[in-house]
Amino acid sequence: MGNLCGKESKDSDPFAEPGRTVNSAPPPSADARSSVPPRITSQGRPLGGSSPSADASDARQAAANAAQERAARANQPKGKLGRELAREKQQTRTTTLGEASREERKKRDADANAEARNWN
Fold first, then answer.
1. CB distance 52 to 44 below 8 Å
2. Any idea what DSSP says for residue 64?
3. Looking at the predicted structure, is the pLDDT value of residue 52 above 80?
4. Nearby residues of 76 by Cβ (< 8 Å), 6 or more positions away
5. Which DSSP helix (H) or strand (E) runs through 86?
6. How far apart are CA 38 and CA 32, in angstroms?
7. What distance in Å separates the CA atoms of residue 2 and residue 27, rounded to the nearest whole number?
8. What is the separation, in whole angstroms, between the first and last Cα of the chain?
9. Which SS3 state, helix, strand or coil, does residue 26 take?
């Protein structure tokens, strides 16, 4: 398959030059240097730090402190809805069921009172 819109090149036929067999090595390159980068022997340093001798324990301690601060901030209620959510999270199963029961009794009492008023 060829290029539909391009010009035909007359001088670069890929089969005009002699090829090589599958077992033969590739032709030597003009560049004698290796393409492997040199091995880095110095230790890197963390971003924002000024000294490369920072201990791993200091980094762990800083990460632990940051996690504790995030957890403390996450537990603080945010606005009216946050306070309501915190209040609901503090309720136990029995207090939730008791509150639902009280509301249901109030509804039944209000319906009974409305029916009694409409009877007369």
1. yes
2. H
3. no
4. 82
5. helix 79-90
6. 15
7. 27
8. 98
9. coil
Cβ-contact 51, 45 below 8 angstroms? yes
Q: Tokens for 67?
A: 């996690």
Dihedral angle computed from the Cα positions of residues 90, 93, 97 and 98, in that order, rounded to the nearest 10 degrees: -60
d(CA 44, CA 53): 9
Return the CA Rg of the chain.
40
pLDDT tens-place string over residues 12-50 = 666 777 777 777 777 776 666 666 777 777 777 767 655
Helix (H) or strand (E) holding 112, with range, is helix 93-119
Contact between residue 102 and residue 95 where contact means Cβ atoms under 8 Å apart: no
- Residue 82: what pLDDT? 84
Contacts of 2 (CB under 8 A, 6+ apart): 8
Element (H, E) at 93: helix 93-119
